[in-house]
Design goal:
The structure is a homodimer of 404-residue chains.
Chain A lengths: L1 E5 L3 H10 L7 E6 L2 H9 L6 E5 L5 H10 L4 E4 L6 H11 L2 E3 L23 H4 L2 H6 L3 E3 L8 H13 L2 E11 L2 E2 L10 H9 L3 E4 L3 E4 L7 E5 L4 E7 L3 H9 L4 E6 L3 H12 L8 E3 L6 E3 L1 H8 L10 E2 L1 E12 L2 E12 H8 L3 H19 L6 E3 L6 H10 L5 E4 L1
Parallel strand pairs in A: 1-2, 1-4, 2-3, 4-5, 5-6, 6-19, 7-13
Antiparallel strand pairs in A: 7-17, 8-16, 9-10, 9-13, 11-12, 12-13, 14-15, 17-18, 18-20
Protein name (chains A, B): Saccharopine dehydrogenase NADP-binding domain-containing protein
Organism (chains A, B): Streptomyces spinosisporus
Chain lengths: 404, 404
């Protein structure tokens, strides 16, 4: 297997560190808009299978050319969701397998944004599913930790733990703190704003997909391994769009453990219009310039990938499932916890970034060995769960299950 | 009297509308960085005494030249506080009387910003007081509503209402709402951030000036004329620096009725570093550019001067004084309320902007008639209060007093 990894930010760099320990691929070309980032990631490894390139992820033709030039059979997308579509199309053009960790972006419903779905997450990708299927080509979408591992958990629950499922609720929470910062998000603020301020999507088997007001249905979820109770709210996330396509459940939700302070901060950004991505005109030393307020918010905060050394605590991704087994009610939480101290010591990557990065590497290895195969645009729950969970454990990062 | 008015924003434009009804001056030249703003203000008046010019307020030499060319004997500064020093120096250079509504900016103490003063508001101006005095020239500083009318109230209380004063506390509150906006400050957000996030300054006769944490000493103050109770907190403001120079009081404070939501919004902006004025680098269509986050916050919000039509409610500026008269304890609140509906109908200016603008026009008229005269760098409380309060009433905008 020859892989083109696009994006050498926090997650992309962690992917190179995790993949470097595995023998399943022959080559991994690391490409970034900023060649210094790609070169730094490769230079840190001392592994002849890795090479650095510069590429503009929005330039579909350049990406396809790069795939061909390096004879890559897989494109792994580790950029932010704005670049999903050009990279997805470039992979198809070049005949490569495609993997990503977030799907094409949504657009709210014009008249009833908090009731009805407009363009849903992944809609643009699924619209091309037939083309991929006909070509016998595979696009494995939403294959990070959430979406990704959370979807694998949903499939595992359906296959092995339940006869009937009432509700599948992805629940994400952490107790991470960062020394020296009163406010330092542990993940890309651009993406966090996008997913938290868009209308959250919910699935119910008799209604289909629908949306609610942001931060709806708050609940306190008790996270395992010492993290404890965190306030979680509905957030727009890919699992709600992916799980019902392959797993039967009456209801599917995603709730993010943002905590009260973070929710209020996001509300304020929205109130002030600072979450906007369309440009506003401001003075600068070079005269009036047009900038995106959301980019300015991101520029004022520290880069989450650089915070590992100052970070303490654990992050938990998981899937809570309620239903029946052998006629009796059952409720479980399948989860994966990463301790920042461990991920920093083992990989030099902070916990949230490492947890996102390990899952696509496991998936690549399953594709390389043939344990996972298929064609079309498929989510992680379209594949058998057990081989994935076993390989994740073999990577040194076990998962857990709590009967509730 | 021939006046150069620098700044044709909300307050500057309201000044032209108020002044146009008064006969005390021969000419008012309205100058702005944006010539269209100056021309619009002049065109609206149909009064041959007014003329429009373009000027860069940071260009001291150009301002002095403009003063000389139009033979102006007064410079009235209606720009934001960043331009105080060049305009103040230009007036001195050209031999003109100088008036402003905010004083030169402060810089926090390097080691103990929330205990000790660094460079205080107005320090740069007072450093040149001797030069003005020697030249027999007058700089009347802090002559808006707050500082300005609030200082006149303090002098009035000392002269006519009290034998001894324990505390003078300026208290500002409003019940303004803006249709169609969840968040729309009624005054320049740039200035509001500056004054609310700088360490608040307090004066005590036995300690001198000192600072506290932002938003300290919250209290609920009951404002008159139907505004009612509003949560007020300590804020850095010129009155605390001006009043003790001319009026004897054991303690001087300024508390701003921001309300809980606005305080939390400002805290969040600070937490995220969005109150910063030093530039951050962000992408733009023209490549990477450096912009001030605070300018971006301002650009995302509506221009307060344009909100008058959608605004409802009243704004109150005033000075609360506690002390003794004829051996008995006394407590009064001297205040000035503007109803937005009235100021829009009468002048087409929103209440907060109009209330700021009327006071320097009254002061100009007192200087023109000789009722107020002096030399040096002087605050409003350096002059007799009664002629000011009588003329303000004659302008159709009476003040009030509440015995507590």
């Amino acid at each position: 297997m020859r892989v083109l990894l696009v994006g050498a930010g926090g997650v992309g760099t962690a992917i190179t560190r995790i993949a470097a320990r595995r023998p399943f691929f022959e080559a991994m070309v690391v490409a970034d808009y900023d060649p210094a980032r790609a070169e730094a990631a490769v230079a840190a490894l001392d592994d002849a299978r890795f090479a650095a390139e510069r590429v503009d992820a929005s330039d579909e033709a350049a990406v396809a050319e790069l795939l061909r030039r390096h004879e890559c059979d897989v494109l792994l997308n580790a950029t932010d969701p704005r670049f999903v579509m050009p990279l997805f199309r470039a992979a198809r053009t070049a005949g490569a397998t495609y993997l990503d960790m977030a799907m094409s972006l949504s657009h709210p419903h014009g008249e009833q944004p908090y009731e009805k779905c407009g363009v849903k997450l992944g809609d643009e990708q699924f619209a091309q599913a037939e083309e991929w299927e006909k070509a016998g080509a595979l696009a494995l979408v939403g294959m990070g930790v959430e979406p990704g591992l959370s979807d694998v958990f949903a499939r595992y629950a359906a296959d092995e733990l339940f006869d009937e499922i009432e509700e599948i609720g992805v629940r994400d929470g952490a107790n991470l703190t960062v020394d020296g910062y009163d406010f330092a998000p542990s993940f890309s603020i651009w993406t966090t704003i996008e997913e938290c301020l868009n209308p959250p999507v919910v699935y119910e088997s008799d209604r289909g997909w629908f949306t609610t007001e942001p931060f709806s249905e708050p609940e306190v979820f008790d996270f395992p391994e010492g993290i404890g109770p965190v306030e979680c709210v509905n957030v727009e996330h890919e699992e709600v769009l992916l799980v019902p396509r392959w797993v039967k459940a009456r209801r599917v939700t995603f709730k993010y453990g943002l905590g009260r302070e973070f929710i209020e901060t996001l509300r304020t950004l929205h109130l002030l219009g600072l979450d906007r991505t369309d440009p506003v005109t401001v003075p600068s030393a070079a005269g009036a310039v047009a900038v995106s307020p959301r980019d300015v918010v991101a520029a004022c905060l520290p880069d989450p990938a650089t915070l590992g050394e100052r970070m303490h605590g654990k992050t938990c991704a998981g899937t809570w499932v309620r239903g029946t087994k052998d006629g009796a009610p059952r409720e479980v939480y399948l989860y994966h916890v990463v301790d920042n101290q461990w991920s920093m010591a083992e990989y030099g990557s902070q916990a949230v970034v490492w947890q996102t990065a390990v899952n696509p590497v496991v998936a690549l290895e399953l594709v390389a060995t043939g344990a996972w195969s298929g064609s079309g645009v498929l989510g992680p729950e379209a594949f058998p769960a057990r081989p994935f969970l076993e390989l994740l454990t073999a990577y040194g990062s076990p998962w857990g299950m709590r009967e509730q």
